[in-house]
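FW: tagging you since you asked about this chain on Friday. Here's the raw sequence from the shared folder, copied in full. Didn't touch anything.
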Amino acid sequence: MKRVYIIAGAVAVVAWIGLGLLIARGPQPEIVVPAEVLWKAGPLNITNTLLTAWIVMAFLIVISLVATRSMKLMPSGAQNFVEAVIGFLLGQVEEIAGEKNGRRFFMVIATIFLFIITSNWFGLFPFFNAIGKTEDVGHEIFHELSSEHPEKLTLTAEGVYEENHKFAAAKSDGSGSLFYIKPGGKAVDFEVLAGETPGQAFDRYIVFLAESLAGFEPHHDIEHGAADPEDVKAAFALLGTVDHKGTAAAAPRLIALEGDHGEAGGAGHGLESPALHATFGGVDFEESQKLLLIIPLFRGVYSDVNNTLALGIVAFLCIEF
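HL: got it, structure written out here
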């Protein structure tokens, strides 16, 4: 029986590592400082760190209930494990603070310790960054470039962008569902450069779309400078417009508002391409791959500094009062 447990444990470890390597092949979520909002419940923002904290708390509560539902004088199984952990922590606290003060502060210290270590260990699960909410980045980039008052970009009085801003995304064949398994996607980035106009950024975006989603190979690098007009025209020919499809299969198409490319509907503020001398009202991803931002469903609880501050306040109140 002991040999069976050893073999089963070895198989589980190998499967765990294999699953982790498979998931690691996909694009990683963009690293941001504040916790990402998953849902809103009235004035409360349900963030991924909050969701992870709730799951960790539920896990600890379930373990406690399972271990104590039928207490025995001679512990075994879950009860034996929990008593060993509690006994070890109690011994450490009493050794540092003394028996009297150690038992006085033990509940607070043990609770904080178990919550933090379990929260950190949850980050080792292969699914931790593999499942998440997605947001449509392809349309967001065009909206930001075409808006007179963008939310994420900063325009100066001279009409140029004040600083760089990167839009991170992953290519996906899906339509942007709530859950997204990473191994099928590939990470791409489009960065708006400081000092360029919305039109110049749009020309670079056209080349970026053709390069990322239609296999276009530009002659000039667009990551650190303006797009070459010939590259923009070649990329546009590959993408096409809604009423004049390009030659690339399943490529995104531009929605022309005016000019020589016809009118394909779509009201609202347009964006002019200096290289094409035409105005466009959007990008159609109907038959192409999508550019989606991955917002992980789970995230390390203490990657959000608010949780660290909250834990310090709770510890202070519990110890002082």
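FW: The chain has a mean pLDDT of 80.
HL: agreed, and Strands lie at 37-41, 44-47, 132-136, 165-172, 186-192, 253-258, 271-273, 278-284, 290-296.
FW: great, closing this out.
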